[in-house]
Structure formats: C-alpha cells, structure tokens
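Progress narrative, Year 2. Work on ABC transporter permease from Nocardia mangyaensis advanced from sequence curation to structure prediction during this period.
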Amino acid sequence: MRAAYTIGAFALVAVIWELVKVLVPADGVSIAGTRVLPRTGDGALPHVWAVVTVLGEADGTGTVGTTLLRTGTFTLGLSLLALLLGTIVGVVLAVAMQRFGWLERGLLPYVVLSQTVPLIALAPLVAGWGGRLAIGGQPWQPWMSIVVIAAYLAFFPVAIGMLRGLQSPPAASVELMRSCSAGWWATLTRLRFPAAVPSLMPALRLAAAAAVIGAVVAEISTGTAGGIGRQIIVFSQQATGDAARLYAAVLAAALLGVVLTGLVALVELALRRYSHPPGTGASTGR
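Result:
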C-alpha cells in the first residue's frame, strides 16, 4: 500500500509539472516588473519524458543513468552511515535525558537550538576540524565530514521521538516494575524501550529524509566528488538550453530519500509487535 502511495505521489507531481508547462507562458508571468511565476520553457522546465529519456544519453564512459546510479549509490551509503550515527547519538541523548531530569531541562533547549544552525555554514567548519584529526593513524577522509554533517540533521528527530517514547509508559506500569524490584536498566529495556517504538519509527523516517538532505548539501558545500550532490552541480553547469540532466539528478536525489525511508519501513515491519502505543488495546504479540 505504501508503495502505491509513493508511485501515486510521483504520478501526481508529473501531472502538475505538465499542467504548469501548459498553463504558464514560456517566459513566466511578471507583475509590475516582478516575476511571480517562473519560466516554463524547455531550458528552465523540461517535459517529464525529456527527463526520463535523458537517462540514456552518453555521459563520459557511460550514460547519464549509470552516472546517477553510481553517484546515487555513493550518497546512499553515506546517508545510511549518517542515519546510523544520528540514531545512536539520538538514542543515547534521549536515554540520558530520561534518566536525569536536570539533564533534560538543561540540554533539551540546546538540542532544539542546534537545528537552527545552517548546514552551509557548518560544513566548512566540520571539514576544517576533521582535516586535523586522525583515526587509528589514518587521516580524516572527506566522506567522514559528510557523514558527520548529515548525522547532525538526523539525530534531532530521533532524540525528540525517543525521549517522548521513553516517557510514555503509564505511571502504573513503572510502579509495577518497581514493585517487582526491577532496577533502572531492567525498566528501561523491558518497559521503556518497547513503549518507545511507536514514537521512534516516525522519527526514524524523518531522520532518514534528513540524512539524505544533509549528505547532498554537505557534498555541495565541501566540494566532495563522487556523490549525487556534486553531480547536481556538474549537470547545472552543463545545462545550456536544456535542464533535463539537472532535473534528472534532482529527482534521483529525491529517490534516495524514498529508498532510505523504505529501509526504515523494513525495520518497522520487524518491530511491528511493538508498533501500537500502550493502552490502545492492540495486540502485543502474546
């Protein structure tokens, strides 16, 4: 069903795309010298079928499609690493804030404030700091900076969603664990972690999309070659009268978010026994 929704969403975008080309003049619409609707000529907004057919055009030693597949795979791998790193950081922060109320009161505002820092300003700093580091005697690699920058975006929804989930068990359930002489760790693993799954999974889907966005922006900001972000810049410089290649790269980057979100859906499927909040009356797999 979710696959059908995804296909339907892309089909709706394609229909709206073509309607804009039909209804809006090629030179756009201007009011009092101010452009309010963009140009829709082929140089600015190619047809959907032009974006699809451009995948078969020659590009270097292969085609545009193979170039996007290669660079997209590179970015997808970095996004997945960023999602894993961001999830670990977010879960650790959430557990710490749930355990210590004073830490939540002092740290949570800064966790929220961290997302106001623009990546375009953060990327050069991370790349510069990383260039002075060595891990296990090995120099810092440019792709590591991309992973850190993307994880910076991904950790936030995980931390907030996980914290909300850890705090979701009813007081009666917590008291029951205490009456059974369960310590903090037993309560965390047997009560709070399972109860946090319904809040964690939507957060992971947001984090997956954020990881892809962060990786693409980081590739552009740091000038790292090999990924879809840098390929977008290359195609934008080649777009002289025909922007089909540029739009194909942008759509390929959007598909990376769909793929990574699909991987999260597989994790959600594996944890479906915990997918219902406590007290909803749904089956818990017993």
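The chain has a mean pLDDT of 85. Residues 208 and 261 are 6 Å apart (CA to CA).
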